Amino acid sequence: MSIAATSKILLSERQAPLEQDSSKVAFTSIEQVVRDSKQNTWVEIKGNSASLALHFNPNLKDTLSVSYSSECWLYFPYKIENGRLILYWYEIIDSKYKDFEVVKAIRKVKKKYRGQPFLVLELANETTLRATYLLPDLIKKINNSSKERILFPNTFTVIPEVYL
């Protein structure tokens, strides 16, 4: 049997369970994550605490929506390079309340960071995004603004439902 034929069989066997079980969510590339029409949420949940939630919205081209709550959203432009998602720092905030800890922390960020890449996301496995922070001091400041939550964790796991 040729390598091409073997690959085709293995690929079809691997994809078959995903097609049969529509509740299972799995991704094989960053491009697939970004273009996901189901608009799954990516978040880290530990006990009763949740990180910021990532929402890839096909209607917001090249922009990642990030929710702190249903009343507080952040937006970061991104580019896809070499199978990785690179996010750029901008203070784009849509919040009903100005006293949310994350809003206060982001408003204090110096303008020199604007437009700089600050986060790289890549698939660690088919349901987890690994975060690499290019401006770790900035992320540490923002994470330290909350006593209850890690806002920017090291990993985000897909949840096949909307989570704010």
Note down, in words, how this protein is organized.
It is globular and about 35 Å long. It has four helices and eleven strands; from the N terminus they run ααββββββββαββαβ. The protein has a single domain, classed as Beta Barrel (Lipocalin). It has helices spanning 3-20, 30-34, 101-107, 136-144, and strands at residues 41-43, 45-46, 49-50, 53-56, 63-69, 72-81, 84-88, 92-95, 117-125, 128-133, 155-159. The chain has an eight-stranded antiparallel beta barrel. It has a two-stranded antiparallel ribbon with strand order 2-3. With 164 residues, it is α+β, with helices and mostly antiparallel strands.
Shape: globular
Ends: how far apart? Answer: 49 Å
Q: Mind telling me the CATH class?
A: Mainly Beta
Q: What would you say the CATH architecture is?
A: Beta Barrel
**How many beta-strand runs?**
11
Please give the structural blueprint.
Layout (H helix, E strand, L loop, with lengths): L2 H18 L9 H5 L6 E3 L1 E2 L2 E2 L2 E4 L6 E7 L2 E10 L2 E5 L3 E4 L5 H7 L9 E9 L2 E6 L2 H9 L10 E5 L5
